Amino acid sequence: MNKKKSLSAYEKACELIPGGVNSPVRAFKSVGGKPVFIEKAKGSKVFDIDGNAYIDYVGSWGPMILGHAYEPIVETIRRQALDGTSYGAPTLLETRMAELIVSMVPSVEMVRMVNSGTEATMSAIRLARGYTERNKIIKFAGCYHGHGDSFLIKAGSGAVTLGLPDSPGVTESIAKDTLTAEYNNIQSVEALFDAYPGEIAAVIVEPVAGNMGVVLPELSFLKGLRELTTRYHALLIFDEVITGFRLAKGGAQEYFGIVPDLTTLGKIIGGGLPVGAYGGKKEIMQQLAPVGPVYQAGTLSGNPLAMAAGIVMLETLNNNPSIYTELDRKAGKLAQGIRNNLQKTGIPGVVNRAGSLMTLFFTNLSGVKSFDDVMQSDKQRYAAYFQSSLEAGIYLAPSQFEAAFVSHAHTDEEIERTIDASYRALQHLAD
Ligand code: PLP
Predict the structure, then answer these.
(1) In angstroms, what is the span from residue 246 Cα to ligand 1's centroid?
(2) Which Enzyme Commission number(s) are on file for it (predicted)?
(3) pLDDT for 168-192, tens place per residue?
């Protein structure tokens, strides 16, 4: 595969942008080699500037559940742009968006739009602190909630990929208010509630962890979080930036039947434009300015382009429940195909899957259920598998600690091609 143009584009980008990228994982640092530069995308495919085509399982890290450049969304963006791209004043689009989110996501009675998942989680914990009048939060090792200071403590995603789970620049006084517990270990949460009585404002969790690779929650763990937070008068925040509208139209909370107090959203709700949202019980949301005292604002919040695109996205998902059955079927087929390949080639590994999210962990363990399990994975093996896949025209996340995203645009034929390519990549590892 010729990647000459990408190579020189990367050299130039590195002169001008730190690491040549605007988000760290894109730099391929943990898998080696240089990133490919994307020129365009359509459906399940991305195309690089050298003209190579790839079946894409990154999907912009989640938003592209209907595939790239989905025609009704593109058309809506085009039409909206002609009417202006930002007004800084209320629009009907924002109310329609709120109406859709409230009708689809069980815990959300009111919602506030922001511009990214990071803003959503930062604002949600400020609200939780304001509402409870407490300072500390509990997060889980390996979970990622964006790059807000309070969350860069034992964080997942790029932070764990680059081996930087705690970032310089986060002050000690902020770090001391973030307590860390173990995913799928309810005792570790209870111990923190015991150790800090009356101090914990909220527990924030990815209801299916996606940012240490996909790790499924035990149902008893999620139920335990609901019980503990209720007992100790702390808020339960589901960070559904990945799982929202992906696992089900009502996200993981619908999928598992557990209702948090606050929910953070992003990715899919923007239809590929920059957006985030947080919502929950009316009584809590009414604490936000201008009604209440907790301040949060945004020049581009509720941006008409993002709202218009997101509305088409959510209406499509809301009106077509078969999308979720199809996503589950296709992702199930892919996961099973990869499991069969592991068996045939004798390469040890575990495929974790929740709906259209999955991760192949290169590990000798029989299951991957915690961050400790995740950390035993063989990153070198993943790097080699990633490179073989890329050469075969399969674009995977450039990190062992991320999810693969299957979209509605992936065809059965593409899933089969991916399984074949995975077999060859695994065979290569076995040689
Ligand atoms: N929360 C979760 C669960 C995420 O996966 C991410 C991003 O990957 C974020 C928050 C942050 O979202 P953003 O990158 O839009 O700021």
Answers:
(1) 14
(2) 5.4.3.8
(3) 898 888 999 999 999 999 999 999 9
Q: At residue 50, what are phi and psi to the nearest 5 degrees?
A: -95, 0
| Spatial distance between the Cα atoms of 425 and 421, rounded to a whole number of angstroms | 6
50 to 39, 229, 390: CA distances (angstroms): 9, 52, 14
pTM exceeds 0.90: yes
List, in sequence order, every beta strand (DSSP E) within 117-199.
Answer: 136-140, 178-181
Residues that are catalytic = 144, 239, 267
For 293-336, write each residue's pLDDT tens digit.
999 999 999 999 999 999 999 999 999 999 999 999 999 999 99
Omega of the bond leading into 106 within 30 degrees of 0 (cis): no
d(CA 143, CA 210): 8
* Ligand 1 atom 7: residue of nearest CA: 146
- Residue 365, exposed/middle/buried by CB under 10 A (0-12, 13-18, 19+)? middle
**What ipTM does this complex have?**
0.99
117 pocket-lining for ligand 1 (C-beta < 6 Å): yes
Query: CA 179, 185, 187, 193 torsion: positive or negative?
Result: positive
243 CB under 6 A from ligand 1?
A: no
Structure tokens at 302: 């509720």
Give the per-residue pLDDT at 158.
Answer: 72
Q: Per-residue pLDDT tens for 274-299?
A: 999 999 999 999 999 999 999 999 99
Q: How far apart are CA 245 and CA 271, in angstroms?
A: 11
* Category of 67 on φ-ψ map: left (φ > 0), alpha (ψ -120 to 50) or beta: left
| CATH annotation of 71-319 | 3.40.640.10
Which among 23, 118, 119, 206 is the best mutation to test ligand 1's pocket, defined by most ligand atoms within 8 Å of the CB? 118
- C-alpha–C-alpha distance, residues 86 and 277, integer Å: 18
Residue of 211, 245, 269, 303 to mutate, ligand 1, most atoms within 8 A of C-beta: 211
Domain 4-69+321-430: which CATH number of 3.40.50.20, 1.20.1260.100, 1.20.1300.10, 3.90.1150.10 = 3.90.1150.10
Where are the chain's structural domains?
Answer: 4-69+321-430, 71-319
What percent of the chain is modeled with pLDDT above 70?
99
Average pLDDT over residues 406-414: 98
Say if CB 115 and CB 276 are below 8 A apart: yes
Give ∠ CA 304-275-144 in degrees, rounded to 5.
175
Give the chain's length. Answer: 431
